[in-house]
Every structure is written in structure tokens, then in C-alpha cells.
Amino acid sequence: MAPSEGISPAIPKISHLKTEECELPLIDLEGLITKMCDERERQACCAAICKAACEWGFFQVVNHGIKPQLLRRMRREQVKLFDMPFEKKATCGLLNNSYRRSKLVSRWGSPTATRPNQFSWSEAFHIPLTKISEPACWGDFSSLREVINEFAAAMSRLSGLLAGILAENLGHPKEAVEGMCDASTCFLRLNHYPLCPKLLGEEESFGLVPHTDSDFLTILYQDQVGGLQLMKDSKWLAVTPIPDALIVNIGDLFQAWSNDEYKSVEHKVMTNNKLERYSTAYFLCPSYDTLIGSCKEPSMYRKFTFGEYRSQIQDDVKKIGHKIGLSRFLL
Predict the structure, then answer these.
(1) Helices marked H in 56-205 — which ranges?
(2) Model confidence over 73-91: pLDDT tens digits?
(3) d(Cα 42, Cα 166) in Å, to the nearest integer?
(4) Which residue numbers delimit the Fe2OG dioxygenase domain (predicted)?
(5) Angle at 15 between CA 13 and CA 270, to 5 degrees
(6) Is residue 54 within 8 Å of 261, Cβ to Cβ?
């Protein structure tokens, strides 16, 4: 199970009302990336990141150090990959058969799924970072391997920078979170949301069902189609895409480690019946035996390993059809 996958405890009915659009906090990282800003500017940028993590759980970054040319190459290779016939995608053996197709299939394969709003209309390739450097895993996809190798390295550097800033804000060394993470569990996910017809009388359907991410940080590169929505102040807000900006969101592990100072926010993707959508997500995850404990006292959560957390989510999904998440570990 991917760290980001999961559905909310109560599956919401899809609203047919127009969703309010929002502009996420937008943070310019140029000074941090190029080391050209003075200390006051650096502190202001770091404060903006931490404030967004506390108040929104989401923010967008520009001048993040990942060249637009690399982003374009990544997207071109991704489109070529998903343009292949389904039979080839399902049988090509890429990265030990990492292809996942969710169209009209419950995200969890749950026998309790009976309504369109319990399904995700999407397909994806899950790519563990440990597999990127293994040529034998890629077969005929050498150009894809080349760009993913460069893209993943850039995302890894950026996630380390952001995690370091968030850790320092809590009074810990900037290496604290990155030191817990392991390439064996960090991964990329290439997403494709095809055109979606109206399903069984529904005006809208999910490209990805509501969920929180089960990692420390997620960094998302999306196209300009839109469809990402997040929950804030008990209502869904549609995220307005910004060209070449990357979206960053806090995961469950950072919320637990920060003792709820940072927020892991529920989000979803809505489908589109006119345009298909592509996105690429990088997930910063620890090794399975990493112990997650709150970095300040009194702790709201008991200590748990990442492996235990994933296992509990899988058990909950199997038994009751949805993710419970952090509330399982409250003291």
C-alpha cells in the first residue's frame, strides 16, 4: 500500500455545488536555493513555510531549484508511458509490475464499496527509489529511467531542505527528519486521471478518494488542468494551479512527530469529463523500523514504527473499508 493512499473515516457524498477556489500560500525559495538572501530574508522564508505547515498543511513553492526543462521532460515521458495500450502497461513488467489501475475499481478492493464516490478513476505507476538505478527493471524504458533518476534526485534534495526547515522550527537539528528517511521506502508515483464520463447519475466522481498522506512530506508536480482539492475549515477548497510551482503537503508522520503543530490535511482529486490530468508525486518516507515519537512533551501520541502504522492502516481498510490513521495512536 502506498503511504498516500487511504480514504476518510466517513466517505463524503460528492457535492454538486461549485467548489470555492483557493490560492495556497505561495513561497519563493530562490534565496534558500541560491544562498543569495541575507539572514533576515532567510528567516522570513522559513517562517512562511512553517506557518503554512501549521495553518494549511499545504503550500506551493516557486524558484525551488528544479529546472523547468526537467519538469517538461518528466511530463513528456510520463504522457508517453500512459499513452501505451492498457494491455502493454499491465504486462510490460516495468519496475516489477508497478502499474496500478483504479478505474471503476475500489481503491482498496473493498467488498463494501457500492457507490461511485467510493471509487477512484485513475491509473498510476508506483516507483520505489531503490529501483531507479537498476537498469534491468526498466526494459525498453531507458529514456524514462534517465529523466526519473534526475527528477527523483532533485525532489529528494528539495524534500530534505523543507524537512530541515520544519525540524529546526521545532527546536531540532535540520537533519532530524531526513535522517529517519530511507530510499528503500521513499518513492515516486506517476498519476494519470483519464477523461471521466458521468457515472451512474453522479455529476462528478473521484480521481482519487479523500485521504491524508501517511508519510512525512509529499511534493507534487501537477499540470494546469486542476482537480486537487483540500479540506480547510470544514469545507473543500479547489487548488488553483500555478505554472512550474510545486505543491508541498504535510503527511501523518510529520503531524505526529510535531505533536500536531503541523497538520496532515485531507485532500482528494476530482475527475474531469473534458480534460485528462497528469501529476507526479514524491513521498518522503522513513524506513519501516523507524520509531515515530512526538518531538515535544506531553506527547499526544504513543510511539509507533512506520511499519506498524502501515500495518494498522491495512488492517483497518480490510476490516472496515477505510483508513483510521493517527487517531488510532492517540494517548
Answers:
(1) 68-82, 86-91, 129-132, 142-169
(2) 999 999 999 998 887 777 7
(3) 13
(4) 182-286
(5) 90
(6) yes
292, 309 in Cβ contact below 8 A? yes
HSE, side-chain direction, 13 A CA sphere, residue 69:
1
Measured CA to CA, the distance from residue 311 to residue 328 in angstroms comes to 12
Measured over the CA atoms of residue 303, residue 306, residue 308 and residue 310, the dihedral's sign is positive
- Record the pTM: 0.89
Does residue 183 surpass a pLDDT of 90? no
Could you count the other beta carbons within 10 Å of the beta carbon of residue 14? 17
279 has a pLDDT exceeding 80: yes
What is the C-alpha to C-alpha distance for residues 217 and 138, in angstroms, rounded to an integer? 27
- pLDDT digit string (tens) for 209-234? 899 999 999 999 999 999 999 999 99
What is the pLDDT at residue 95?
A: 63
Q: Give the sheet arrangement for strand 206-211, strand by strand.
A: 20-22, 235-239, 228-232, 267-270, 206-211
DSSP 117: G
**284 within 8 A of 218, measured Cβ to Cβ:** yes
∠ CA 114-117-121, rounded to 5°: 105
Domains of the chain: 20-329 (2.60.120.330)
Which phi and psi (to 5°) does residue 192 adopt? -135, 125
CA dist 149 and 74 (Å) reads 10
At position 235, the amino acid (one-letter code) is K
